[in-house]
Amino acid sequence: MTYTRQMLDTYSPAVDIDLNTLATTIDALNECAQACIVDVDADLGVPNPTEMVKCIRLCLHCADVCTAAARIIGRVAQYEADITRPSLEACVAACKTCGDECERHAHMHEHCRICAEVCRRCEHACRELLDALK
Predict the structure, then answer these.
(1) Given 19, 60, 66, 79, which residue has the most CB atoms within 10 angstroms?
(2) Closest by CA position to 55, among listed 111, 101, 92
(3) Distance between CA 113 and CA 122 in Å, rounded?
(4) What is the pLDDT of residue 10?
């Protein structure tokens, strides 16, 4: 059991959200944001970082979107579907786009391969939570 799930269990109000799915998504969002930031740092250290500008930019976008979404969906006491859903949808889009770009460089850079994998996992977790919120 993750710390996220343990925290949700300490105060969980009466919400109609599976707490395992919610905790898994929050953890995936936080891991994705961290992976993207590390990927940016690694991209800046490659011999020709100008070739990585698009990847860097998309990783920064993805990290920001994931961080914001993790904070929003973690506030289950005042669940607001009009804010939560678009946040998760933005994550799906950001993770897909970033994952696609990182995959283009995965054969050359291990950090891009890992980032793409983490983005795919986060995209999947966000889709699962969106489905659970229907």
Answers:
(1) 66
(2) 101
(3) 14
(4) 83
